[in-house]
Amino acid sequence: MLRKLLILNALILSLAWCFTVQAANKTCRTESACFKPNVTWSVSGGEITDVCHNYAYGDWRYRRCRTEAGKVFKQRCREYKEKARNSQGDIRERARRQQDLFCISYRP
Question: Is 58 helix (H, G, I), strand (E, B) or coil?
Answer without folding.
Answer: coil
